[in-house]
């Protein structure tokens, strides 16, 4: 009996957006208007690439970025929740599927000694170039019209589940914990024994309640959360059953 926990990262594990948090490193803590206005919907990763060039051009180095990123606050109750999952790893497989990047997520989780809780992290690959600039790439290519060009979380989840099945691992239940609009696509493939946990007041919850109003609700159960303590209470009941 094994459960799969799927976490988004921004506004789910951490209480902010890691990509906008890095702006604290910019001169006067802000980006020039023309850079801010250069974002096109569905092309966030390319926009962040330009932000990283701007930071590099202004002499922002890796150690300053790291210091800034490791001050990002975790969501209420999240550190306790991840500690609980870490103590029960024989029951839980745990992955992150995020539109952030490998460098930010690694820095933040390692600083809090939480990296080992997660079996895999699926996010946009990032690295520092020889000139000291942070660069980021799209996670993959896909054909989903609903998702941003760089990442379809449904595709990631499906490929992960297929790979696990090939290795003889199937899950009693999938628990999907997220907040954003791009979390709806993977939630749509969850089955009736699975559970979606949208964060209260965020886009995912609003989109899911609109679906219910249109009489096309998701197949899985739904549990709305505002603190990770509520998620932990659910998991404790789950492993007792």
From TrEMBL:
Q: Which domain of life is it from?
A: Eukaryota
InterPro entries reported for this sequence: HAD-like_sf (IPR036412), HAD_hydro_PyrdxlP_Pase-like (IPR006384), HAD_sf (IPR023214), Pase_PHOSPHO-typ (IPR016965)
Show the GO MF annotations: metal ion binding; phosphatase activity
Q: Which UniProt keywords apply?
A: Hydrolase, Magnesium, Metal-binding
Is Phosphoprotein tagged as a keyword?
Answer: no
Give the active-site positions.
8, 10
Could you say which residues bind Mg(2+) here?
Answer: 8, 10, 179
Residues in coiled coil:
none
Entry's family note: Belongs to the HAD-like hydrolase superfamily. PHOSPHO family.
Q: Which PANTHER family match?
A: PHOSPHATASE, ORPHAN 1, 2, PYRIDOXAL PHOSPHATE PHOSPHATASE PHOSPHO2
Query: Know the name of this protein?
Result: PHOP2 phosphatase
Q: What is the lineage of its organism?
A: Eukaryota, Metazoa, Chordata, Craniata, Vertebrata
Q: Quick one: which gene encodes this?
A: Phospho2
